[in-house]
Design goal:
This protein has 20 helices and 17 strands. It is of the alpha/beta class. The strands form five sheets. A five-stranded parallel sheet has the order 9-6-5-13-14, sandwiched between helices. A hairpin with a 2-residue loop joins strand 15 (391-395) and strand 16 (398-400).
Length: 586
């Protein structure tokens, strides 16, 4: 209906311009907005076109607004009433039969309501999580997992062909540190002190002695110290006894640790309902010659320079504040070089759009990756980064410190499982809490609220309970022998209460909300919208004296049951976009 209204206003504006002696011509029609006012008393929609035309035509905006209303008329039966408001806005009320027809559309389309073909079947890749296999997934990883998954669902709902991808760095210093950490714990469990590695893991990271339970251990500086490291070491000791004492950390210790940790990461994601179509890794880029080829091509393009034995990307020439090292003086690549190679491979795979969901700590890297892609002569605009801020986990009003290496962090699995003194967080509640705020805003994950089972307090359950209530009403109807109405049987004209029309208007916004959320890469728009729908529906149902859904008037009862089904459809479709269940009972 909003689209029909926009077309009607465009036609009215063209007539207004012609009457005023002006033509749309090169200037075109003004880029006006048609939006729902914040206050229902101001109409179903408001338009600012007259304000935008006033300067061009040299006429008062309220006068133009009155002219627009005259040329618009009833817009072919669409508009019931129009008024000039404020400095020159046009407030519009749609004819009731249009809202009633919307209910029939919602019931007819069912699971397809809210979906579109805006993406035109174009291929898009969404890369997210991409946590290195050095430890369990933390709460911060969980936010990225849910944001990425919801964004992929939005792309699918708007007609894109989506591939979900997980990329991880399984080469370089982090993985060597992981292997050395497991090796140190393995030797500790054998009652032997781990000798320091023959070479430092990096120039600024020398091994240092540590004492645990009186046992001296040479543990790598910045090594991974979680309990999971000792568990992996214990498994290796159970399998191999003391036969691995002479093995280097960057061998079986690293391989076994990587395999176990990555297996656990995948299991955690499965619990959250997060799935991937493809897994990629850094070592494959080196093995296939992609990294070396990128460096050669950057050299050929004149975009690298040598200084102090290192190879630098000439990124200042591409508009960035500084040049960045691609290859260190010791011959080891920085993360930037394989990242550029990885993104070139993405574009070579034919994706029209590539979206990386990453933590705020990667903000500095993104522009340099795009600069490297541009230096290779590729369209860097096809690559987007969605950065999310960090998550603070609080319990009892106190923040829980989180550090992967020091292991003072709470994992996603621990949140979901709970403990003897505290219930776990349901996957649905976890998902909602992670997506209900804008990605670029800090998120304080309130454990107490997430564990709350009272639907009036937990916002995730508030939405799900609203959906379950629609099934409760249907069960009551069937117990009384009352059938739910089909779309072509719906007599929605019997819905006349202001709160009923407000609900219908809100349901009509759903397709636009989905398209806007996908276009803005902002899944939180869906979460916010669903809270508005539930906030209208739950009070409506509770006020049984005024809104007797199963009242004695058969026509009114049928209409209200139709409204019940429409609310169910929108809530179910919206919850599906957030990856949440739509329960029939709670």
């Amino acid at each position: 209906m909003r689209e029909q209204l926009i077309r009607a206003i465009e036609a009215a504006l063209a007539r207004l311009l012609a009457e005023s002696g002006g033509q749309p011509g090169a200037a075109g029609l003004p880029d006006f907005a048609v939006e729902a006012p914040r206050q229902a008393a101001h109409g179903d929609f408001a338009c600012n076109a007259a304000l935008l035309l006033a300067k061009r035509l040299g006429r008062p905006p309220r006068e133009l607004a009155a002219g627009l209303i005259e040329h618009l008329g009833d817009a072919g039966g669409l508009v019931a009433r129009a008024e000039v408001a404020g400095p020159g806005f046009v407030n519009l009320w749609l004819a009731g039969r249009n809202w009633h027809g919307l209910l029939q559309r919602i019931l007819s389309e069912g699971p397809s309501y809210g979906r579109s073909q805006a993406g035109g079947g174009r291929p898009v890749q969404v890369e997210f999580v991409s946590a290195n296999p050095t430890g369990p997934l933390s709460v911060g990883h969980g936010r990225q997992a849910i944001l990425g998954d919801c964004l992929a669902r939005l792309f699918e709902a708007t007609g894109w062909k989506v591939q979900r991808e997980y990329y991880f760095n399984d080469a370089g210093r982090q993985m060597r540190v992981l292997g050395e950490s497991v090796r140190a714990r393995y030797l500790e469990q054998l009652g032997r002190a781990a000798p320091p590695p023959q070479q430092a893991l990096d120039n600024d990271s020398l091994p240092w002695p540590e004492t645990l339970d009186g046992l001296p251990v040479h543990f790598p500086r910045d090594g991974y110290q979680g309990d999971y490291i000792g568990e992996i070491a214990a498994e290796l000791r159970a399998q191999h006894g003391g036969a691995l004492t002479a093995e280097p950390g960057d061998g079986i210790f690293r391989r076994e640790a990587q395999a176990r940790i990555f297996g656990e990461i995948r299991a955690t994601l499965e619990r959250l309902g997060v799935h991937f179509d493809r897994f990629s890794n850094e070592q494959a880029l080196y093995a296939e010659g992609c990294v070396e080829a990128v460096l050669d091509d950057l050299r050929a393009a004149g975009r690298v320079r040598q200084e102090d034995g290192a190879t630098w990307l000439c990124s200042t020439a591409l508009g960035l504040p500084r040049d960045r090292v691609l290859v260190k003086s010791g011959g080891e690549s920085t993360y930037l070089l394989p990242d550029i190679a990885y993104h070139r491979e993405k574009l070579r795979r034919g994706f029209e759009l590539v979206v990386d969901v990453q933590g705020a700590d990667h903000k500095d890297q993104g522009p340099y990756v795009k600069a490297g892609i541009a230096a290779l002569g590729l369209d860097a605009a096809r690559i987007e980064f969605l950065f999310h801020e960090f998550v603070t986990l609080s319990t009892g009003g106190k923040a829980v410190k989180q550090s992967t290496r020091r292991a003072s962090f709470v994992t996603i699995d621990e949140l979901l499982e709970g403990g003897p003194d505290s219930p776990g967080v349901s996957p649905d509640a976890f998902r909602f809490f992670m997506v209900q705020r804008r990605a670029g805003s800090h998120l304080d994950f309130d454990l107490g609220l997430a564990r709350e089972t009272d639907w009036t307090r937990n916002p995730a359950f508030y939405l799900q309970y609203a959906h379950a209530r629609t099934h409760g009403i249907e069960r009551q109807a069937r117990e009384r022998g009352i059938a739910m109405p089909a779309a072509d049987e719906l007599q929605a004209g019997h819905l006349s209460l202001p709160e009923e029309l407000e609900l219908i208007r809100k349901l009509g916004e759903f397709p636009e909300v989905v398209e806007r959320a996908a276009a803005a890469r902002a899944p939180h728009h869906v979460a916010y919208y669903l809270r508005e729908v539930a906030g209208l529906w739950n009070p409506y149902v509770q006020d049984a004296a005024r809104h007797r859904v199963l009242g004695d008037d058969a026509a009114q009862r049928s209409a209200r049951l139709g409204l019940t089904l429409a609310v169910r459809t929108v809530l179910a479709n919206g919850l599906g976009l957030l990856g949440m269940g739509a329960p029939e009972r709670m």
